[in-house]
Amino acid sequence: MSTAPDGTVLAAGCVLWRRSPWGDDGTEVCLVHRPKYDDWSHPKGKLKRGEAALAGALREVLEETGYRCTPGAALPTVQYTDHLGRPKRVEYWAAEAGEGRFTANSEVDRLLWLAPCGRPPPPHPAPRPPAAPGAARRAALRLMLRPEPGIPPEARLKGGAPGRRTGSVCLLNTNR
């Protein structure tokens, strides 16, 4: 595990998105369920010693989702106190999902693709529209900053520690 000189735990992850035949701007954003914490989150994890943040983010996405991805724009960094009381800093990137397939494991048991504004897909998918430049970044930021009705009740935004809003990327632990 990598830590900053002040003892802050260093982590990285991605707001993973894919083109979709429905949804806002023709994109969907990935959330993973972590059974250990019974919460939904963007794929992320602690950096290994000496590992660059972006390399760690791509490794964590592959480990947690089974998808390779292409990184895009850097997103806001989140700082909070983890469940052990340690300061933690998570760097995020928007990343487009590539080839892959999700397989449940002990760390992540479910994966969910949502339209960024939380609207469910129509009953019959429309043809896939081309994604406009910057659409994925805007869609990811909208999901992170403003969840809309339709997002499953267990997938609500939070900051770091449960019950405290200190950031805008992690997702709320449902055991409030």
3D structure, described in words:
- By secondary structure, the protein is an alpha+beta fold.
- The protein contains two helices and seven strands; from the N terminus they run E-E-E-E-H-E-E-E-H.
- It has helices at 53-65, 135-145; strands at 9-19, 27-34, 39-41, 44-46, 67-81, 87-100, 110-114.
- Strands 1, 2, 3, 4, 5, 6 and 7 form a seven-stranded mixed β-sheet that branches.
- The model is unreliable at 121-133, 145-151 and 156-176 (pLDDT under 50).
Helix content: 10-25%
User: Strand portion, in percent?
Assistant: 25-35%
What's the total number of strands? 7
Structural class of the helix and strand makeup? alpha+beta
**Main beta sheet, described?**
7 strands, mixed
Shape: globular
Q: List unreliable stretches of 5+ residues.
A: 121-133, 145-151, 156-176
Q: What is the CA–CA distance across the termini?
A: 29 Å
Q: Radius of gyration, rounded? A: 15 Å
- The number of helical segments is 2
- Mean pLDDT metric: 75
Order of helices and strands: EEEEHEEEH
Which oligomeric form is depicted?
A: single chain
